[in-house]
Backbone:
């Protein structure tokens, strides 16, 4: 069923009785050509592009819960391409271009809103660093504008510019950055993949990965064994447990990142604003809630809920930056399980087991990567060669030390990226 | 979350700094090779359950090995790193 304004109109007139489920709920078949472990954003987009770009059929996505029940439904929905290092730069640039065509591609309203992203800076040194980053973004073909204090004031008049600890010197403005509706991205890819024949199998937990003579042959699941020629592990924060079934240890430590949303308010924050010095960033959802977050809780955790010290820190940072939000009531706080890599950059690669692929290490930047991550993993699985924009996301870069992409220069400690 | 410090008793998590998995106690020899250093610096068991990691208690300046559960945030035991190494 194709979605359109006309269909919404006619369905409205006929009591909305003509809508059908957006995807099937198939039982697993005994064998597939390709199995993707993980029905989140990255897994679903991989399945979609395997079918769409490479014409492959006979694909299953196995999800232990319901589709989109992990980080794709728990993030703060920011879409941007403001990376500095070669490797990341071209990948996120590609992803942003896919975002810009995503709604017509999927015939699904993902509510992508390019409202502009402003990263604030608070010292001369930080201004220089942001100028350099902006130049890298321009060199990549994306957009960046360095704003001085008055330039920022025109966009964000409500900030506290005179705060004594971190006075605002200016900001790096990325007009094509913005946000999107997180769940809709998962649902749009799921629907598109289903329409192209991909079996989306929910409540199907993978309990083992079968390997014979160095080659993957299938998986064991809570709904029985399934054979496959190729298997991709796309499990984000749970990557460690999935990889352990294949006898692998990954360079990943799982950490909690908290997020917050307030009650719905009238439109007040038009952009995405990040305040790096205070570890705070914020945007306003289309429903009116202020969606904001801060930094990791800093210790390994699978709890999917945070600890109070970071709640306090994020609130303090928000009040420092924009005292006007102080009377908004926080409705909910929650945590997502982040697959933190030692250099803060992701992994899309083959493994030592033939036919087994891994996609992980998205740190806290996985949402904006969803289109390109699926695009590139699908390319790798279908052609056997890495896609040019993801060629540096190698698993062995940690062992060899070649091609590390540490954007923040904080060294090989998982929780510091 | 509160962590029992062997010197100071049960203290608030804010007094502690997390360093990483206790694999950091097994530092390989400088010439141990790429695999050993990769294990040490990068690769992690990353368990959903009981784990051991290193925390620094700022007030008494002691390094601790903390055994805790990554799913429930329950702290099971702590001991000074000097004992963990022995």
Residues:
């Amino acid at each position: 069923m194709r979605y359109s304004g006309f269909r919404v109109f006619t369905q409205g007139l006929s009591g909305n009785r003509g809508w059908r489920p957006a995807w099937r709920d198939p039982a697993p078949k005994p064998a597939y050509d390709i199995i993707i472990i993980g029905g989140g954003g990255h897994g679903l987009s991989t399945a979609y592009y395997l079918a769409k770009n490479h014409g492959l059929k006979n694909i299953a996505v196995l999800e232990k819960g319901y589709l989109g029940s992990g980080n794709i439904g728990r993030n703060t929905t920011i879409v941007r391409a403001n990376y500095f290092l070669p490797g990341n730069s071209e990948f996120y640039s590609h992803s942003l271009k896919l975002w810009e065509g995503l709604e017509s591609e999927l015939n699904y309203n993902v509510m992508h809103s390019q409202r502009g992203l402003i990263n604030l800076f608070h010292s001369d040194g930080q201004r220089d660093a942001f100028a350099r980053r902006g130049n890298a973004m321009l060199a990549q073909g994306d957009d960046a504008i360095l704003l001085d204090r008055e330039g920022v004031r025109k966009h964000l008049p409500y900030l506290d510019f005179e705060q004594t600890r971190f006075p605002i010197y200016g900001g790096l403005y990325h007009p094509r950055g913005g946000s999107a509706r997180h769940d809709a991205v998962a649902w749009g890819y799921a629907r598109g993949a289903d329409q192209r024949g991909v079996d989306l199998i929910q409540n199907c937990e993978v309990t083992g990965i079968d390997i014979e003579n160095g080659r993957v042959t299938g998986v064991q699941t809570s709904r029985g064994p399934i054979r496959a020629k190729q298997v991709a592990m796309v499990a984000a924060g749970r990557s460690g447990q999935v990889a352990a079934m294949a006898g692998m240890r990954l360079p990943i430590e799982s950490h909690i990142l908290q997020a917050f949303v307030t009650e719905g308010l009238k439109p007040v924050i038009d952009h995405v604003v990040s305040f790096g010095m205070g570890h705070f960033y914020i945007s306003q959802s289309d429903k009116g809630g202020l969606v904001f977050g801060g930094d990791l809780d800093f210790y390994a955790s699978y709890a999917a809920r945070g600890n109070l010290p970071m709640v306090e820190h994020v609130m303090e940072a928000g009040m420092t930056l924009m005292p006007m939000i102080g009377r908004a009531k926080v409705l909910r706080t929650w945590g997502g399980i982040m697959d933190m890599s030692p250099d803060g950059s992701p992994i899309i690669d083959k493994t030592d087991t033939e036919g087994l692929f891994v996609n992980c290490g998205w740190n806290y930047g996985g949402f904006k990567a969803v289109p390109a991550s699926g695009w590139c993993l699908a390319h790798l699985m279908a052609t056997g060669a890495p896609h040019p924009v993801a060629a540096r996301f190698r698993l062995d870069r940690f062992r060899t030390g070649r091609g590390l992409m540490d954007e923040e220069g904080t060294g090989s400690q998982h929780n510091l990226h | 979350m509160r962590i029992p410090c062997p010197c100071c008793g049960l203290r608030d998590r804010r007094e502690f700094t997390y360093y990483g998995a206790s694999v950091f106690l097994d530092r390989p020899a400088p010439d141990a090779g790429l695999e050993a250093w990769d294990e040490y610096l990068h690769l992690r068991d990353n368990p959903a359950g009981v784990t051991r990691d290193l925390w620094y208690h700022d007030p008494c300046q002691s390094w601790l090995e903390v055994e805790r559960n990554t799913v429930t945030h329950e702290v099971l035991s702590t001991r000074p790193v000097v004992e963990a190494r022995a």
Observations:
- Chain A touches chain B at residues 238, 240-241, 244, 249-254, 298-303, 307, 309, 342, 398-401, 412-415 (CB under 8 Å).
- The mean pLDDT of chain A is 96.
